[in-house]
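Format notes (please read before filing issues)

Several people have asked whether sequences and C-alpha cells are stored in separate files. They are not. Every record keeps both together, in the order shown below: the sequence lines, then the C-alpha cell lines. Line labels are part of the format and must not be stripped during preprocessing.
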Amino acid sequence: MFAAGSALKAIYVVRSGAIKSFVDDEDGNSQILGFHLAGEVVGFDGLSDDRHRVHTSALEKTSLCEVPIERLMDLTAQIPSIQRQLLRIASREIGRDHDHMMIVGRQRAPVRMALFLLDIGQRSQGCEADGTDIRLLMSRYDIANYLGLVVETVSRLFTRFSEAGLISVERRVIRILNRRGLLKVSHGADELERAA
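Then the structure lines:
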C-alpha cells in the first residue's frame, strides 16, 4: 500500500481482510497505531501535507478499492454529500486515534483488553449481543503492541476472560459470551470475577 514519507496518491477502502498502520522509531522498533477492517478507509494520515505519516501492511489476504486523491477531490467539489461523508469518516478516524491514546495512556491491562475486544467486535460485525464470534485478523503480538502490553499479558488476559465466562477462545476466534460483563471490565471493574 504505502510507506511513511511516500506521496499521497490515493486513499483506500478495505473491501476484505485487514490492514495495520504503524510507525517505526529511530531504532527500528514498530508501534502499531491502528487496525483497519473491511469497510474502513486507510490513507487519511497524508491529507495534511500530501505525505503519509505511517506505514501500512496487510494482516492477511486483503482486497482494497483505490480512490485516487485527485478524483476524490473532484467528486467532493461536485457532490457536497460526498464531502460531508468524507469528513464524517475522517472524524471517526481521529476519534478512534484519540480513544486509543487514552486507553494506552491511562487504563489498566484488563480494561485495555476489554475495550479492544468490544471495539473490534463492533467494527467487524456490529456485534451488540452475546454469542457473537470475532475472527481476530491480527496476531497476539500485534494486539500486545497496539495495547502497549507484552504478549504474555495478552495471553494471560485471554485466559482470565475465558475463565470468568466473558469470552471463549479458539485460536483466532473469540466468542463474546457475556458482553455486559465485558462492558463492566471496560469501565474498570476491579475483579474479572465480579464482572461475570
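For reference, the curators noted about this record: The domain at 108-195 is CATH 1.10.10.10 (Arc Repressor Mutant, subunit A). The first helix runs from residue 69 to 78.
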